[in-house]
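<goal> How does this chain fold?
<body> The protein record starts here
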Amino acid sequence: MRKIKAWAKKIKQQIFVLYLAYKDERVLLYAKIFSICVVAYAFSPIDLIPDFIPILGYLDDVIIVPLGIMFALKMIPNEVISECEDKAKEIMKNGKPKNWVVGSFIILAWSIIMLWIILKAYQIFR
């Protein structure tokens, strides 16, 4: 159980690393875009596979998010990662930051996507 808790804490820290790296001007644009998508997905309350589906519901949390983090970290320069890791450790010590603007943006983005899917499905099945 300790290994799982340590792994989860490491994942959270890496998400903060990606968030901080996104703001760094040394990170290339494609890496910034991919990183912010991974962070948005990790913080998003909406998953590709809903959590209420037995076993499969948690696969995205266990597989998709860590894979996204791994690929994003490969795109970012090592010196940026090491600086952001130090900042992320400090953030984790002081408690998680709350950014209601970003949270609202994520919910708005997912709502627009879901509305678009519903409208397309309605057009197809009408």
